[in-house]
Amino acid sequence: MRVRVLCVVFTILLGDFPGTFLGNPIGTRVGISPFGQATTAYGQTSSKAADEDTVSTDTAGNEPAREDSAKKQLEVIVLGNAQDAGYPQAGCDRECCKLARSNPSARRFATSLAIVDHANSKRYLFECTPDFREQLYLLDQLAPIDSGRAKLDGIFLTHAHIGHYAGLIHLGREVMSTDRLPVFCMPRMKAFLSSNGPWNQLVDLEQIQLKKLAAGQILSLGTSCSVVPFLVPHRDEYSETVGFEIALNECTMMFLPDIDKWEKWEVPIESLIARCDMALLDGTFFDGSELPGRDMSQIPHPFITESLSRFKKLPVGERRKIHFIHFNHTNPVLRAESDANRQILELQMHVAEQGQRFRF
Question: Rounded to whole angstroms, what are the CA distances from 80 to 85, 98, 180, 206, 230?
Fold first, then answer.
């Protein structure tokens, strides 16, 4: 008989991370450089907790042996946690961006994830941002592949706002000139890319192959990983907007970087949190004071303060699943020492960090 034990461990290049997810309360958050990393292991829980990596033991009490199966070979890497324009943002002379300009380690790329299937040597990108060049390099540093094979096995797009697809320019003949790289997107997004330049040139030259997704339909990426898109309300000028439920071995991760207010969606967000093991959620603005002179109703997002007020009613186990992401350059969450971070951590929710790694 084998017993599977959940292990939750962090390692950061710049030092130890104080606290664990799904275990002891999180301590004070620390800053991570753009090329730093924090690692968390997720898996099936048993009645006992462990302080080591997930291991298997037998009833005879033999020495624990690390499992080498594919179930230990799926990884999610956060390649960026900022809003579409990154941090610092062009044209911003406010104090929020002065910090990032004077301190390169504070800079952040636009929100993007990588799914790495180590067992099958495959890498998938979620969002193709204006920071694609740097993010691909970051991915190569954290999860290198053999030379001579395709850099990516597919790209998933949530919608047609600039921070989520503009990096496709790097796939054209002026840069990588990829060969039929699969780009997975919804029908309106597919039509937008197919009928507007310069994106349609990528299609015509077969540098990308557009693969149409359908809401609620499962797309398998192998025996241990699958993706399901779900529609959400957002400013859909050129395309629909989706989030993704991503199955990774026995676990499920939700990726929802962009949505209008929670109450505009007919689906209670709590119901999706309940059926996943980890939720990366829209945290664009901390509150409504960040853009003086702008009508915030024209760029609706759930403020983190609104989300905290809503989610604090959840059991602590549900709250610990939540990781905010997609931070505007004005969002104080980008500063590790801010009161905004303290409020999130006190409620045992989290801030997704660039370079963070989650193993499933």
Answer: 11, 19, 25, 28, 22
Q: What is the pLDDT of residue 149?
A: 76
Number of domains into which the chain is organized = 1
Are 128 and 157 within 8 A, CB to CB?
Answer: yes
Q: In this structure, what are the phi and psi dihedrals at residue 291, rounded to the nearest 5 degrees?
A: -125, 80
Q: What is the mean pLDDT of residues 10-17?
A: 30
Provide CB contacts within 8 A for 159, sequence distance 6+: 165, 186, 189, 234, 236, 239, 240, 241, 242, 258
Distance of alpha carbon 3 from alpha carbon 9, whole angstroms: 19
pLDDT at residue 12, rounded to an integer:
31
CA distance 180 to 205: 9
Q: What is the CATH number of the domain that holds 309?
A: 3.60.15.10
What's residue 290's pLDDT?
Answer: 87
Sheet holding 112-117, edge to edge: 39-41, 357-359, 74-80, 112-117, 122-126, 154-156, 181-185, 208-212
Q: Provide the mean pLDDT of the chain.
A: 83
Q: Can you tell me the distance from the alpha carbon of 289 to that of 115, in angstroms, rounded to the nearest whole number?
A: 35
Instruction: Give me the domain span that covers residue 136.
Output: 39-359
* DSSP-assigned beta bridge partners for residue 284: none
- CA separation for the pair 329, 285 (Å, rounded): 9
Indicate whether 355 belongs to any domain.
Answer: yes
Q: By C-alpha distance, which of 248, 229, 231, 249 is closest to 240?
A: 231
Question: Which of 4, 11, 5, 2 minimizes the C-alpha distance to 356?
Answer: 11
Where is average pLDDT lowest: 42-46, 124-128, 133-137? Answer: 42-46
Assess if residue 241 is contained within a domain.
Answer: yes
pLDDT at 29 over 70: no
The mean per-residue pLDDT over the stretch 19-28 comes to 28
Tokens for 76, please give them: 């999610």
Tokens found for residue 10 = 């962090």
